[in-house]
Amino acid sequence: MSETALVLVAHGTRSPRGVEMIATLADAVAEQVGPTRVSFVDVLGPSPSEVLRDIAGPAVVVPAFLASGYHVHTDVPREVADSGHPSVAVTRALGPDPVLAEVLLRRLVDAGWQPGDAIVLAAAGSSDPRALRDVRRAAAMLAELAATRVRIGFVATADPRVPAVVASLRAQGEERVFIASYLLAHGLFHARLGDAGADGVAEPLGVDPTVVGLVAERYRSGIPAALRALSFQR
User: Fold this and answer.
1) How far is residue 134 CA from its own chain's centroid?
2) DSSP label at 91?
3) Chain centroid to CA 154
4) Is the keyword Cell division assigned to this protein (predicted)?
5) What span, in angstroms and rounded, lies between the C-alpha atoms of 90 and 222?
6) Rounded Cα–Cα distance for residues 122 and 157 (Å)
7) Which DSSP string do the residues of 167-206 spell out, in sequence order?
């Protein structure tokens, strides 16, 4: 699409399935916009700074996060600065976004959810209030689409935890409870959801055409800023 490189930044996971999913997502995005590089801010490499050092021309960094917490606000900017790359634009994170709510609902339906069933949006969790606010926005978007209230549970870091939310809904008389996995890929966090006591757990967002299109959209939105930064260096 252009000579501006796309660097997809993910969290990182020890799950081979999760790593493979991120690679597959990058390949699908590359079919739409051109060469796409993958980097990680935790667990494994390469880091964003390492990838950026290998790129000669302008670059757009797309944080593949569903909420903007520490990694988005601190890790990514630090990595860009450490790279020394002169012409980089960083887009906003993937989520929350209305199109992700559409994918969440499709995943729930595939897992057996039906209107009238309770929904728990399961997010990774964060100590950053900005990230928690983003999760609440994501839950509101899903609630609007599903036409029902969506409770929020966290896998780690924040409260309430997913099993506690599921148990609370059971105590309130909900017969069927389903978990919407607000995670991008398989890994330890998603695996924990299977033990939360729900009637069904939706798959992570994964390599859905809608997610691929959202990454491509974020990339395109960052190209002008990357090119402006390049022109300032000349």
Assistant:
1) 11
2) P
3) 15
4) no
5) 7
6) 12
7) HHHHHTT-S-EEEEE--SS-SHHHHHHTTS--SEEPPPS-
